[in-house]
Every structure is written in structure tokens, then in C-alpha cells.
Amino acid sequence: MIQVRGLTKRYGEVLAVDELSFEVEPGKVTGFLGPNGAGKSTTMRMMLGLDRPTAGEVLVNGRPFSAYAEPLREVGALLDPGSVHPGRTGRSHLRVAAQTIGLPRSRVEEVIEQVGIEGAARRRIKGYSLGMRQRLGIAAALLGDPRVLLFDEPINGLDLDGVRWIRELLRRLADEGRTVLVSSHLMSEMQQTADRLVVIGRGRLIADATTEEILRGLGRRLVRVRSPQSGELLERLQERGISVQRCGDQELEVENLAAEELGEFAWQEGIPLHHLSDAEQSLEQAFIELTGDSVEYHGRNAVARTTTEVAP
Predict the structure, then answer these.
(1) Does pLDDT of 43 surpass 70?
(2) Which of 69, 75, 77, 115 is the most exposed place for a label (fewest CB within 10 A)?
């Protein structure tokens, strides 16, 4: 597993990571989430010994990453798909990495096939799309058949087929008993893929729980209802102090009321319903609520300009 203990990193006056502690267990896909500037990439770099922590430590299977004689056999990582020699071919890039740990060329061919870049392996990397560079980086991470895998935004640049492929790959790696840590901004993918979530903001731990626990932590139930008399239903609900808002011409979203209770209420009031269902809570909404106070940069809403034409 990965153990992060009191990890702190300062860059001059900037505190990038602030006494961060959590564990990443084998056999699970752990999502590593946070707003831009939260310290995710810095933390992952310290896990790999690329940055030295100001305080604290990271242990990989009980030892610092730097203690391994052949680290690529212990930890595979994709942090920056662009950090490769553009003049090399994909195959030669992987062969160089394989030679550093004494792997045969047959292993290179195995990972090339595994990530689906057989047709591009002879081309120079400078001609690769972002998605192809991502696949090449994943191939390099898998090269040493490591027990621990770190992926920083692996879905960027992938098409729909590639997204589905990486989702299945992460699941399979975890099911094999490996430790898998994935950083991503795509909440919908993390909701489908991650078993556990570590959420940080401004370098501090905000949440460390299963995906289901974080979704339940929203602390409310939402029901979607559609009715040709939605205006009347909205008024009746508000009269009883029930939180409700309109989300369509005939559709309402009702908070903290079970679908069965809402259906019975509408029947008693003589209001017909055309649709009634529990609304699925989204990880995106949970993430926004958890990290709202930790977002460093906020954009402003665009303001529509109204112009007045004056007749000549």
C-alpha cells in the first residue's frame, strides 16, 4: 500500500501540501481529487521521490520509493505524458525504459499490445496525439509489472473508446490486487470507477472515504417529479415548508422527501403525476460542496450586454 504521513511541502512562502496523511490500499481504485492548485500533482511527485518533502514521508509497501533498487518493478506512474523524447519512436522509448531494469524486448511488445498502440509504435512520438501519448505513458507505467500504479489525469485526450478502455484497465489492475491511485477532474468517471476517494483542498485533507459514503454525505434525498399541474404542486409543497425548485417546464426537484411520500401527497391533493423517481446524487455536486471553500481561482459569470439602437 501507499502510506502518506504528515506530508508537507513548501515552495518559499507557498504552502503546497499541508500535513497530509492518508493510505491507499491494494485491491481498490482510489480516486485522488481536488481543485486546481490543491496539491495533487505535488503529492504524487513526492510519492515518487521527484520532489523532496519539507516534512513528513511517503512509504510504498513499507519503504521509501528511493530505497528500491529497481523502482519500476515496484511502482509504475504516469504523471506527464509530454515528458518523452519527441524524436524517438514509441517502441524505442519503451525499449530504453525496459533496458534500465533488464526486461526483455518481448515485454515491450506485450505492453504495446495491451495499450493498443501497435499501429503507432514505429512512428516518432512528436507525431502522437495527446491520447496516443497517454497510452504510451500507461504502457511505460505497466512495463515493470508493478504492484503499485499512480496515474495523474490518465483520461485526458482519450476518445470515448479510450475512456472505456482505461476504466476497464483500472478495474482489472485493482482486481488483481494492485494498489491504484488515480487523479482526475472527470467526476463522472471517478463515480463509475473509484472504490474510495481522497479529496484535498489547499494541500489539506478534506475527505477520505468510500465513494458511496461521500455521496451519502450530501445529507439529503432528491426526488424528480413531472406533472401537468407542476405550478400547483410547487405551491402546495412550499406551503408545507418542503424545499422544492423547478428544473423544467413541468418538472420539479423535491428535497428530503421520499418518492413514495411525494406520490401519496400528490394523490391526496388531486394532482396528477406523469413521472416520479429518486434523483441520483452526483459526485460532481458532492465535490463542489466539499471543496467550495478550497477553490483558489473563481471565474466570473458572463454578463449579457444590452444595446439600445437609436433611430437616425
Answers:
(1) yes
(2) 69
